[in-house]
Amino acid sequence: MKTLASISEKTEILRRLESISPASQRRWGKMSAHRMICHLSDGFRLYMGDRPVKPIPVPIPRLLLKWIALWAPISWPQGFKTTPELDQEAGGTQPQKFDYDLEELCRLIESFVGPPCRHSSAPHPHFGRLSEREWLRLAYLHADHHLRQFGA
User: Fold this and answer.
1) The pLDDT of residue 71
2) For 76-117, what is each residue's pLDDT tens digit?
3) Cα angle at 112 between 109 and 113, to 5 degrees?
4) What's the longest Cα–Cα distance across the chain?
5) Whether the predicted model's global pTM rises above the 0.70 cut
6) What is the distance between the alpha carbons of residues 147 and 21, in angstroms, rounded to a whole number?
7) Which of 73, 96, 104, 140 has the highest CB neighbour count under 10 A?
């Protein structure tokens, strides 16, 4: 199971991010590559407790949803609704300059993984409380999901 606890898997994510440009075309969804970079940055701010978010209703028990999202051997569905605080069309961070925003995302990733891992003690809006291991797994999966969205 891939996780940002692994130096090689963190390096893989950073390398894949280098292949993203403002002209990168999405395979699904509606956000641009630049908005995706800001969305991932907001995600890392959430993971570290720097971006408070409100819990949102989920259709199944949070513990079950968390297990499926983090450990079931399936790809995440396309079009899963994010929280307004991480949505660049709602309350998320607005794109500024692509190169700066990409550098900021890479800095956030490095800050998150530490050592030590700088994970939030606040509950995740979909999954509730997460352990350090779960935060590191979630961070990898979220980045991987959106990088695949842009063919990286």
Assistant:
1) 98
2) 999 888 999 999 999 999 999 999 999 999 999 999 999 899
3) 90
4) 40
5) yes
6) 11
7) 140
